[in-house]
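Input/output pair, single chain:
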Amino acid sequence: MNQSFNVVVNSNLSTPETTLNPNQNKNYYIDWSSILPQGEYELTFSFMSEVNTISTFQYLPLIYVDFLSQADINSCQASYQATSSNFLGLVYPTNLDPNAHLSYLRADKSFNQPIYLANRPYLNNFNIRILNNQANPSNWVDDTSPVPLDLSSYVLVFHFRLLKKAV
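Output:
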């Protein structure tokens, strides 16, 4: 039977040096060696933000996690994606009030393809960025007029399923 591990990241609990950063660019600390044994993993995730104003949904929000570029990825979401990518996946809006354009961003384990890691992450200090899909990506923002707002607070849950323990 394969072991599974959930690691919860809350944007309100980032490391001190990024506490004042927008939620689209936060650093976190996790001692991976204390919770994940060495081995091969299947990584999926779920994500949910608090309410944002999304009237046009002009740009896709994409999640990037820098520990992925260090994790010796065996297989990624798409065959053309480089093995050194730090792209975790997409999140999409779910309407709460279509008239007021209130939505939250979410993703669940079935929305994005799993990522296969040849070993657990080892970068204890890591960064999570939520960027748009423009040619020159920048922080994803909601569509509030006249000035777009930063992404609301979020919770991201990494789900690691141990496929093969290192010997």
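The helical segments are 32-35. The first strand starts at residue 4 and ends at 10.
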